[in-house]
Amino acid sequence: MRVSSGVDGFDELVAGGLPEGRLYVLSGPPGSGKTTFSAQFLTEGAVRGENCLYVSMHETRADILEDMSGFDFGFDRALNTEGVTYLDALSSDGKRFFGMPGERRDHAGLDNRIVSFVNSRGIGRVVIDSTMLLRFFVSDDDDALIRFLSALKRTDATTLLIAEMTDPSAYADEHYLAHGVVFFHNYLDDGGMTRGIQVVKMRGTSIDADIRGIEFSERGLRVLPDEPVGGTTDGTVDGAAGR
Length: 243
Ligand SMILES: Nc1ncnc2c1ncn2[C@@H]1O[C@H](COP(=O)(O)OP(=O)(O)OP(=O)(O)O)[C@@H](O)[C@H]1O
Ligand SMILES: [Mg+2]
Known about the structure:
The protein has 243 residues and is an alpha/beta fold. Helix content is 32%, strand content 26%.
């Protein structure tokens, strides 16, 4: 089964949609559209009556509603739908889940909590925004993050994980661990900014791996149907950093 992303023009790049129940990483520079894409993905699920979970490590529910208020794709309605849960890691519910940043934690407990939350509620779509901050919550050692993501991979939910590239010259563990990786690009072109999206990997699926133009409108993000954009189409990290 394939899951529709909710982003116009995107499903066509991945043979009709994201293979269901898998883990996908969205990476790219600040302001490149990762959160908007994820909000559209969640909204699509809510509209289809799927149970959804949005986990934010750094934004309150009010913050993200404010950020998305310039769009009218229905994110506010989606967040208010029964079956859609917004978990702010710094709220009291969030602290019960994640503990406080920097605290000694029981990682197996966290992994089990997320898996049982997703399974017991029959959650179909999960968004985690973002790994940079997740690292802060889970632990300093990489193994805890890998175990947490592996636990999510075992659920039936289709998960989008937003992963800032803290070191733009290197891929991180999550890029290898994920079933699919999507890069967002911002690059300067004739003095203006061009935005693009690129499916770098999607296991089991034939992909269009060229950088495609994207555009923001009131309806949110959409992938432009035109020719690929930009010169860096080899999927390297340099491309992701927009250089
Ligand atoms: N109608 C609109 N409403 C809100 N933002 C818009 C709109 N049109 C264009 N944008 C732009 O879209 C960008 C939103 O990007 P988004 O928050 O999805 O990026 P991001 O990749 O999650 O960034 P970060 O890593 O900083 O969280 C903003 O920089 C904003 O300028
Ligand atoms: Mg964001």
